[in-house]
Specification:
This protein has 4 helices and no strands. The longest helix has 31 residues, at 69-99. The chain is flat. It is mostly helical. It folds into 2 domains: 1-65, no CATH class; 67-145, Orthogonal Bundle (Helical scaffold and wing domains of SecA). 3% of the residues are buried. The mean pLDDT is 84.
């Protein structure tokens, strides 16, 4: 999964992760963890379990309303976020294309720099799509009229 830490990670990073997961899951999570590697692994395992439990509960909630509803919601959110993120990405690439020529003044090859920056923008776009879809799916509510 996405929770890979070294034993030398500081408490600030762990606190940041815990706060992000609290916002994502909508439940309070304990933040205080000793920095021992065994304790850290147990805590990360606990966080993974909380994510899985939250997703399973969301799936049961949606399945009780209509079979296959969660998959439809996931598809809808994915398509929506791909569309939105792609338009945002194209705007960033256009700005990059217009501003990359200034890199030549810094004795750097503009084409190489453009490729690096564009690839980084693309990776960031993919990560944002994943994060937004997971957030929207886990925080979605169905209102029956």
């Amino acid at each position: 999964m996405f929770l890979n830490f070294n034993s030398n990670q500081d408490d600030k990073t762990l606190g940041f992760l815990t706060n992000k997961l609290q916002n994502l899951l909508g439940i309070p999570l304990p933040i205080s963890v000793t920095t021992g590697e065994k304790d850290l692994k147990q805590y990360l395992s606990f966080l993974k379990q909380q994510i899985q439990i939250t997703y399973d509960l969301k799936e049961l909630e949606m399945e009780s309303i209509e079979k296959g509803l969660l998959r439809e919601i996931e598809k809808s959110f994915i398509l929506q976020q791909i569309d939105y993120s792609w338009m945002e990405h194209l705007q960033k690439i256009t700005f990059l294309r217009e501003s990359i020529r200034w890199r030549a003044y810094g004795q750097k090859d503009p084409l190489t720099e453009y490729k690096k920056e564009a690839f980084n923008y693309f990776l960031i776009m993919l990560a944002r799509i994943r994060h937004r879809v997971v957030y929207f799916v886990l925080r979605s509510k169905v209102i029956l009229l």
